[in-house]
Amino acid sequence: MLAPTVSLRDITRTCGTVIANDRVSLELAPGQVHAIVGENGAGKTTLMKVLFGLFQPDSGDIVVDGRAVRLPGPGAAMRLGLGMVHQHFMLVDTLTVTENVVLGREPMRGLGVFDRARAEHEVAALAERYRLPVDPRARIAQLSVGAQQRVEILKALYRGARVLILDEPTAVLTPQEVDELFGVLRALQQDGASIVLITHKLAEVKALADQVTVLRAGRVVGGGRVAQMTTEAIAELMVGRVLAPLKPRSARSPGAPQLEAHALEVADDRGLPAVRGVSFQVRGGEVVGLAGVDGNGQHELLEALAGVRRPSAGRIVVGGRAVSGRDAREHRRAGLANIPSDRLKRGLVADMTLAENLVLGRQDEASHGPWLGGPALNERARGPLAEFDVRPPEPTARAAQLSGGNQQKLIAARELGARSRGAEQVCAILAAHPTRGVDLGAIEFLHGQLLAAREAGRAVLLVSSELSEILALSDRILVLFEGRIVHETTPGATDERTLGQFMTGRSAPQVGPA
Amino acid sequence: MEILLFLAAALRISVPYALAAMGAAVSERGGVICIALEGIMLNGALAYVLGAHWSGNPWLGLGSAVLAGLLTAWLHAEVTVRFRADQITSGLGINLLAAGLTRFVLVRVFQSSSNSPRVVGLPEWNLFGLAKLPGLGPLLGSPLVLLTLFLVPLVWWLLFRSVFGLRLRSIGENPQAAASLGLHVARYRSQGVLTCGVLASLGGAWLASEQHSFSDGMTGGRGYIALAAMIVGKWNPVGAVAACLLFGTADALQIRLQGSAFPSELLQALPYLVTMLVLAGFIGRAVAPRAVGVPYDPDQP
Amino acid sequence: MKLPRARMASALNLAAPLVAVLAALAVGAVFIASIGEAPLEIYALMFHEAFGTGYGLGQTLFKTTPLLFTGLAVSLAFRAGLFNIGVESQMYLGGLAAALVGSYVALPGVLLLAASLLAAALAGSAWAAIPGALKARFGSHEVINTIMLNFIALSLVAWVGRGLFEAATVRTLEVAPAAWLPRLDGVLPALHGAPANVSLLLGLLLALGVGVLLFRTRLGFDLRALGLNAPAAQAAGVAIGRTQILAMGLSGAIAGLGGVNFVLGYKHYFELEFTGGAGFIGIAVALLGRNHPLGVLLAALFFGGLSHGALVINQRVPRELVNVLQGLVILFAISAQALAARLGRRWA
């Protein structure tokens, strides 16, 4: 059965004060793979949530086979043959594969009796037919990430999806799993289904897609047949400019090691090893970029370095002082600054004032004996707020009221700003995705601040999913794969493609005998 | 015989616990904490007495109890599911409200701040001659006891074998996932709470029917014990009922030992201690449904 | 268009307690009308009784005092992200400790009073620290644990009481007069023998202390950060477990001290179940007072006034109306707050 033709016409959707989609139009032809690309925050996910009925558009139409439709919820979208594989899987961990797949459309014996045997049989048949190997009786919690994704796809197919929307499907997959996924998607395409692939990885677009639409800041800025476009052309559309060359980094010889990990092992939340024997040093005056696909241990490594996750083995040294890895205060006192990856989760207390957020983690410095707070705190905040261009520079505003970029600048003001005399001085900085989801002006400002810290002789460990950012800022680059450092290089000696190979576990072609 | 009588006493005490604990399991599996058990039982008990008093018919009393339980649970569902307010606080508010309301009505209707007059209890049924068994007989003649025995597998089946239960449990674990498949989270959660209201109100009706009257605060914390039993039973109705039997036995033993030198008061504290140990992970690990206590906001997927 | 709506949402949020009180009184009016009385007249009578005469005011203040303590205790724990439902038993044990020290320990003059007060605070604190430590160590939920400890305290006291209570009574020996907290009518004759006592001043001091602690000290800063965003507090170097135990301990100390209003300021002995639910109403007080000491004080006064005002209407409307109002205020307050938060998010 051929997929319906789905068109989005002039879709506009605001999220809070941000216009996430601004008069976006696109057309999905049956039997084709249509890639939607754009940087983080370009509005891809919002657009797909509109298409799947999870968000209502402020204006614009969704047209299916020539008929304008209204999608009050995902149920309506599914009835029209749409199916979605969410970036963060929508699975119930405690239930089985079968239960997850049939949920909401369970086969019944009599009134309200769940026919488990039939459900399992149907799921097994479906898995067989689309070559999606998975045990119908396994519990989700026991499955690998790749298998969980197969369950997500089965969920959509079970509901008769002919238009399959996949949101960043490869972000968490191993290279083998990516290959398998692409095989499945091609088979589905042969079968007449349409596939919408949301991604910011251009290699995937080239490998799989027939059509591409490029989004930037909520608008469609270009697109067309993939065969007729070069990767460079798509990249330029995505970024909207030829990346401004950063102020050339001064060649400087790095100083003493300020941040060291020795044979570090860290477990994830489920107790499984996530970081497996990682050792590295970051010297003063050096930016070390840590590249890797999300989910390869970056998160756990950063948490251990920050002192909020206890390593199971190994040592961490900050500014020459051995620290425990389980007390953030101790790490900070040794001279560590931390720009965490999720600003609203670990970086800020949204319901505290800007002045209070500037103190977070620097209580030692801001308190007089047991006392902390009052008007002095607000006065103390004015300088950093102005210096780091936080808008509005209002010490008593709540952090929740700021835009993403200004929240990130607020964290930078706290972590990178000047310390008062007598306080511990910062010698090492963790910067995790420091520019994720912020506007271009803020990106340039934050990059400048990180490079200034380098000039000032601090050690910077930069973790980012944007390879361009890592290549632009780093003196050295480490690649993390499955919890191990698998490659070390410098920006001059590598490029995105090569890094991508190492990030996915495929080592570069050997040149001559080792 | 002695042993049988003791067993009957323990079972008798366990009945209201079991009904309320099964209710709590249904509510919490759907993601709504039900500290309101105490208030639901109390309202149910009073409603039984009012119904039986005015009609002279114990079955109408039972019907009124269920109605009162439904209304009380509906209030809890409105506050927690529709307004998405804190579930624990709502439960405490409902318990305070029920304590006040039942006293108010008691004074107003029966001109007493402590007791209602005597009303009829539920009749005895002699099913398969069970009621004539030695020791346990009178207990097994009680319709509510028979109903409870019937409800234990039924509630288990509802949660773990029916389509409703599958959907409810998925909503208690991951409401976002359920909603992404088009399930109506608020509707199922409310239905879970209402089911809890019916079950807990039967517990209240049992107390009133056994005592043939209502007295101020007559649930005496049984709702909280039932909640504890549900936790000890790991959110499973069968486990919860088993915990209720344990707690009921401790109670019966304590009553036996009253007046002796044995510190029976400490025996009374045993269920609470056991619950704390279970929560701390000393006696198996009790894992709550992942989304229990978290209001579901469809605007924040 | 956006800004006025955002302001409306924040105004609604601020007004939520007031809305809740008015809504509860409105439902209460239906109750009053249903038994053929005039609601406004009844409410006016209550208000006059609670605040209109010196004696009435003294009684209101006496009933306000324990609620001030329990409200402060609940709100302090709340600020750290902990729901202390055990305030009832912390107060209960605090009162027992004060009575025992006051009646059995031989200390001269004001030292005995100080020791009794200290005992009350320590007992409440220790009892509250148990769920705090269980949370910090095992992550077990403080709500269930505090509820369990409420019941355990009842059993414990019943058992201890076998040996302690005066024959055929449910109360302890009388506390030595040196440990009595003087009544306020000694200084303010206008109160005409109402039992309001120095405990009230202690409570006011504590309200001030809690305010200073929360908004002017490092511990308060850490505690609030923990309550608002635990992962961020952890990343900022706040020792989560220690702060949780400390917050519960302080909360319990305040609750324990609340027991002296009855034990050292009024009856001068400990009596079985003397707390009469003040711990649970403390939750309503904290909620209505938005966990701010000043708000808590006002809310305690409101509930104190209600509970004394109810005595005068009892001939016409059962005074249990007040308990109904307490429950309704809680339900309306959380609903209004949740609604305001939701509208705030949508309109932001």
Can I get a quick summary?
The complex is a heterotrimer of chains A (514), B (301) and C (348). Chain A is an alpha/beta fold and 514 residues long.
From the structure above, extract its key features.
A: six-stranded mixed sheet; B: mainly alpha
Count of discrete alpha- or pi-helical segments spanning 4 or more residues of chain C: 14
The H-and-E topology of chain C, N to C, reads as HHHHHHHHHHHHHH
Main sheet characteristics of chain C: none
Radius of gyration of chain A: 25 Å
The proportion of residues in beta strands of chain A is 25-35%
Give the overall silhouette of chain C: globular
The pLDDT mean of chain C sits at 93
Q: What level of helicity do the residues of chain A show?
A: 25-40%
Structural class of chain C: mainly alpha
**Which band does the percent of strand residues of chain C land in?**
under 5%
The proportion of residues forming helix of chain C, as a percent range, comes to: over 70%
Please tell me what the overall shape of chain A is.
globular
In whole angstroms, the N-to-C terminal distance of chain C is: 11 Å
- Rg over CA atoms of chain C: 21 Å
The count of strands of chain C amounts to 0
Strand order of the largest sheet of chain A: 6-9-10-3-11-12
Give unreliable regions of chain A as ranges: 508-514
Largest interface summary: B-C, 48 and 49 residues
Query: How far is the first residue's CA from the last residue's CA of chain A?
Result: 53 Å
On the 0 to 100 scale, the average pLDDT of chain A is 88
Q: State the low-pLDDT regions of chain C, or none.
A: none
